[in-house]
Amino acid sequence: MTTTPTPTQAVLQTACLAVGLDATDPEPIRLAENAIWRLPGGVVVRIAQPGQSVAATREVQVARWLATQGVPAARALDLRQPVAANGHPVTFWQELPPHEIGTVTDVVALLKQLHALPKPDLPLGELDPFVRLPERIDAASTIPDDDRQWLKRRLKDLKAQWAVRPRGLPECLVHGDAWVGNVARTQAGPLLMDFERASYGPPEWDLVSTAVKLTTTGAVSAEEYAAFCETYGIDVTEWEGYELLAGARELRMTTYAAQHAATRPEWRREAQYRVECLRGRAGAPPWRWKGIM
Fold this sequence. Notes:
Strand order of the largest sheet: 1-2-3-5-4
Number of strands: 10
Shape: globular
Order of helices and strands: HEEEHEEEHHHEEEEHHHH
Strand content: 5-15%
């Protein structure tokens, strides 16, 4: 019996053929907005969405630069990449050693190191907290139309606020999506991963990812957050721009769930609940949002 490859596997096979890697018996690691596969021999393949070639290129460039700076991070293979396969940008990485998800302590230690680096000579562009949000809202077919229109208005309002945002700490290289899921805790210490949103911008954006776990979702305890602030040296919740950045992060978290609920029925309740929270229909935060991945 012949098994027809899934569309993602077809992309994987095409990309691996282009760089001379054997795609026999791949193992899926995570199939979400990006599809991540493991190949025999210690290679990890990351398949991004069509139209994300700039982000994929950025991710490889940042990883290679961080290696020159001695930052513990995922390492890109020494290949010409990304590779375009069936419209998808594809990148190739060294498989990480045995690891578990990082902690809040790991996140802040790596951010403190990252934000102190000199500005790299890379065409990274300025931080865009709203990248891909219109596409996510359009894809959120299980969300009632009234709620989707509200999400669009919320996005427009936040963009207007961002254009006149208050200034805080000096801008620097920021990770762009700095949370425990993008840190791997290995025996040798934590490693930073996933640089597709790396850019130049306010370091507060990286700090907000943890702060909203206290103020918005309740996933981080007051003690954990206090230790986070002590290590970094500031509490971003006390900054005048916090509500704006937290609002942008909340919108990203909500639209991410809503987008994937369109193809994953088990996430529909959580996606709708997040919308209810943002619209003021679910009481005051912190809300107990559940992870969907």
